[in-house]
Specification:
Strand content: 25-35%
CATH architecture: 2-Layer Sandwich
CATH class: Alpha Beta
Structural class: alpha+beta
Shape: globular
CATH superfamily: archaeoglobus fulgidus dsm 4304 superfamily
Number of strands: 9
C-alpha cells in the first residue's frame, strides 16, 4: 500500500470509434496535479484486442511521467472489449489504480456481449479479477493497491464538481475533440 499523498494522477479514456471499422482506437491520458491539467498523452489500442494493459502501462511510464502517483480509469474496458487487468496494471507500474463508474456494471449483460469477441474467457477473467464494485459516495469503484478510504481521499482531491474526477473528465473531452473535432457529453 502507498502511504504518500496522491496528488499527480493520470486518467485514461478511449476516443470515440466507428464500430464498423477494425482500426486502432486512440486512448488519451490526462495527467493532473489535483484538478489542474499538466500533461496529455496519447496512444493506440486494438479494438476488442488484448493490449490495453500494456499500452496504458507504457503511456503512464513514458514521456518522463515519473511524477505520476496513481491511475484512474473510467471502466475496465477500452475500444470495445479490450479489457484492462487493473491488478496487473498496478503491479507493472507499482502504482494504485482506481476504476470509477457512475453506475454499478450489469455484469450479466457484459458477459453475454463478451461472447462475441475473441479471447472471451481471458477477458472475463480480467474483469472478474478486478473484484466486486464498491459504492463510494455517488460513484462505484474497483481498486488495486489502495484501500477504500484512500480511494475516497483520491476522489475528493481530484474531483472539482460533479462525480467524475477531473483527469477522467478531461481525458474524455480531449479524446473526443481529437477524434471527432469536438468533445461532447459525460464521461
Amino acid at each position: 500500500m502507498w502511504r504518500r499523498r496522491l496528488t499527480n494522477v493520470i486518467g485514461f479514456d478511449d476516443a470515440p470509434f466507428d464500430r464498423a471499422r477494425r482500426e486502432p482506437v486512440a486512448v488519451v491520458g490526462a495527467v493532473c496535479a489535483g484538478t489542474r491539467l499538466d500533461l496529455v498523452v496519447r496512444g493506440f489500442v486494438q479494438r476488442d484486442g488484448d493490449d490495453a494493459t500494456a499500452v496504458l502501462a507504457s503511456l503512464a511510464r513514458g514521456h518522463k511521467l515519473e511524477h505520476v502517483r496513481g491511475v484512474l480509469l473510467q471502466g475496465l474496458t477500452v475500444a470495445g472489449f479490450n479489457c484492462i487487468d487493473v491488478h496487473e496494471l498496478a503491479e507493472r507500474l507499482s502504482l494504485p489504480v482506481l476504476v470509477v463508474m457512475r453506475r454499478r456494471p450489469r455484469f450479466e449483460l457484459i458477459y453475454r456481449a463478451l461472447q462475441r469477441v475473441p479471447h472471451a474467457e481471458a477477458k472475463r477473467a480480467a474483469i472478474e479479477r478486478a473484484g466486486e464494485p464498491e459504492k463510494l459516495g455517488s460513484v462505484w469503484v474497483q481498486r488495486a493497491g489502495l484501500t477504500l478510504h484512500e480511494a475516497g481521499e483520491l476522489l475528493e482531491r481530484t474531483t472539482l464538481q460533479g462525480r467524475i474526477p477531473e483527469p477522467l473528465r478531461l481525458a474524455h473531452l480531449i479524446a473526443g475533440g481529437l477524434t471527432t473535432g469536438k468533445s461532447r457529453g459525460r464521461p
